[in-house]
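This week, think about what follows.
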Amino acid sequence: MASARETVARSTPKLEPVARRVPRVDFLGIGAQKAGTSWLHRMLGAHPQIFMAQAEDKDLKFFSAHYDYGYAWYERHFADDGGAARRGEFSTSYFYSQEAPARVRRYNPDVRLVLSLRDPVDRLVSHHRHEIRTGRLGAGVPLEVGLASNPSYVEQSMYFTQLARWLEHFPLASFHIVIFEELFRDPARALRDLYEFVGVSPSFVPSSMHEKVNEGRVPRSRLVDKGVQLSTAALRAVGAGRLVESLKKTGLEKKVKAANSRAGGALDPRLAARLHEAFAAENEKLANLLERDLSIWNRTSTS
């Protein structure tokens, strides 16, 4: 029986590069949502040889939601790169977008792709807490209700299925796959590997390497949480993005959010077991494709 890697390889068409001017973007972070991408974005942006573009909410979403704005709009976000050796951006919607893989291929067939993956059940739980934190769901809505009303909880955790669509347009060698659990077990090694992949000095060590970003907690007051978000967005909208980044470095925003948050609560062990069983086949296909041990995901409880 053919392996998952062989099956995907046979289905990958040989696409000819599209002739056009040299793209301004060297690498893309494409996902997955709630898998450490905010931390990765910050660590990439901290490197002196890298310029990371971002919109008001970090993600440009050009290849998924704003493609009709055109390349000129997209590349304006990289105009102030300061002569950086590498330019990139992170938009987690790309991983799940039906159109993004072909659009990215058309823009730059040689682009390097960064993908972070997390225990699919933990990602799903964090996704649910994010929906509550942003007000899309009411406080205290059970995970079962979120699962029943939002199919993206499961779809976005089906990593093999999502990655297989990208592999119709790019070879596996174009991807750097970060495993979330390994990332925080040894962040220094993870960053060395990541920096080397995007083509910059791997010896750089960010001072903020051990800082946590966007922990999956639930706000005590949604009004306070929304106020912080709106203040940040307003500053970016008037061109004060650098001021926002400077304020973040002081830790003020982080302290306000921490004071206004509470733990999300543990997942019922029986539901956790059912969810892990539901993802088992998908995880096995992914492990075979990547030729990596993903047994760390085969747990029956999550917090």
